[in-house]
Amino acid sequence: MLLVRVLTAITGIPLVFACVYCGGIVFYGMMFFVSFLCVYEYFIILKKYNPHIFVSLVMSAAFFIFLYFFKNSPIDKIIVSVIVMMIILFGVEIFKENPNLCIVRISLSFLGTFFIPLALMHMVYMRNLKIGMKLVFFVFIVVWTLDTAAYAFGKIFGRCKLARNISPKKTVEGVIAGIIFGILGAVTCRFGFMSNILTLRNSVILGFVIAVTGQFSDLSESIIKRDGGVKDSGRILPGHGGVFDRFDSYIFAAPTVYYVLKLLR
After folding, report:
1. Fewer CB under 10 Å: which end of the chain, C or N?
2. d(Cα 265, Cα 258) in Å, to the nearest integer?
3. Measured distance CA(77)–CA(118) in Å, rounded
């Protein structure tokens, strides 16, 4: 299993880095693909609730495109998107024969359709900044560093369970290690290739923010999987599970880092 994980990482990481380096439509295309698969896996996890999978996938793809190509008045386009999504989802339910649990279906369909694409689009927004390439590299490296540290230290030294009913393998020791190594990873990146972009103080702040929100995102996905009764979101990545499993850390981390960076600047 470990060998499979390593081989998948060796194949996948250079591909991700190449897309980050290219930026523009290439990176957008990668994140569109990632967003679409995350939404799909989200609905497969929760299929017992009979969500509106096809309609929601179409809406999530259209929403991701809308967020990218229509860049003026971002608040207005988000409001318009919410209204259109709710009209469609309620419309589907109105013409169904059985209205039982319709609010559950509408709610979970809207959550996957709206929030996952919106959150992951912030990776594209970051890449489009003047310092975008280095910033996205920074976020990826810090997340991978803290995830590895949290897993290793949790496995070796973990004694205190963090959220036993949600993710039994998560430990307080692992979370603390993730935060420490997230900050260390951020500081290392700062001295390595971001000294002209981030101050030491800001790199520590961003490292802490990524470590906390990244691990919170991971636990949030664990809640979804626990509700769906599955261990992994999918099998598309050998040894790693699904795409949602690999990109769950960015669901809350990406938008938080984007707006914290705006405040720091």
Report:
1. N
2. 11
3. 12
Q: What pLDDT digit, counting tens, does each position of 204-235 carry?
A: 999 999 999 999 999 999 999 999 999 889 88
Yes or no: say if 241 and 234 are a contact pair by the CB < 8 Å rule: yes
Q: How far apart are CA 78 and CA 72, in angstroms?
A: 11
Statement: residue 154 has pLDDT above 80 = yes
Residue pair 180/153 in contact by the 8 Å Cβ criterion? no
Report the distance separating Cα 247 and Cα 214, nearest Å: 10
On the 0-12 / 13-18 / 19+ scale of CB atoms within 10 A, 209 is buried
The DSSP code sequence of 173-205 is HHHHHHHHHHHHHHHHHHHHH-TTT--HHHHHH
Largest pairwise CA distance in the chain: 61
DSSP character for 48? G
Break the chain into its structural domains and give their ranges. 2-264
- The candidate with the shortest Cα–Cα distance to 49, out of 248, 227, 230, is 227
The CA distance from 48 to 51, in Å, is: 8
Q: Is the pTM of this model over 0.70?
A: yes
Q: Which residue has the tokens 């380096």?
A: 21
CA dihedral 146, 207, 118, 240 (to 10 degrees): -10
